[in-house]
Amino acid sequence: MAGDRLPRKAMDARKLASLLRAGPGGPLVIDSRSFVEYNSGHVLRSVNICCSKLVKRRLQQGKVTIAELIRPASRWQVEAAEPQDVVVYDQSTRDASVLAADSFLSILLSKLDGCFDSVAILTGGFATFSSCFPGLCEGKPTALLPMSISQPCLPVPSVGLTRILPHLYLGSQKDVLNKDLMTQNGISYVLNASSSCPKPDFICESRFLRIPINDNYCDKLLPWLDKSIEFIDKAKLSSCQVIVHCLAGISRSATIAIAYIMKT
Fold it and tell me: What percent of the chain has pLDDT over 70?
């Protein structure tokens, strides 16, 4: 029951600002908001951890770890051997005791408690911190994206590639041919659900699979699903990230991603 919970440690904006100004070696700062909100603006050097409802349930069940939810480039901060304090924030929560038990922030805090000695919530969240210390925030305002987007795995073309599971991404031909974007997200396996989209030059043959289907009612995807699922699992067992794509990333590739989730 909520009344039985131990009081959650809290840190105010002024204290966090002081720690950030002290330079490296401070607390691990985790942003629990959506991918879109994080990209729009976040606390300096913070790490984004967010997920879809499906992945939130798997996190709650212990089927995925905190580290798996972090982009590869930032994962070392969570896996560091040295003990470190953690500060977590959302948009505006002031008191963790009012959070619903099944909310993502509540689940995230609970999981972090099992990994770190000291986990605190930032009082007032990003809203308070950014208004008091705008110089300690960074990001790129995304005016074209509606702020009602709650998860990064929604099929919004302007978001770019989207994360479905810790090891599975969905995207378009444009995303896959962007080497910097692929490297940034640690994606080294490509499942190409098209007969015409080119293979990226920087992906080796052993990590590339083409499902030669066209986007029409005549081509059948069902005969290819087992091979697709096997390929995605191959990437997972290799501790690698895989992207499923077609031309636009909204029909053929999305169908394969859905089939994989249903199968597993």
Answer: 84
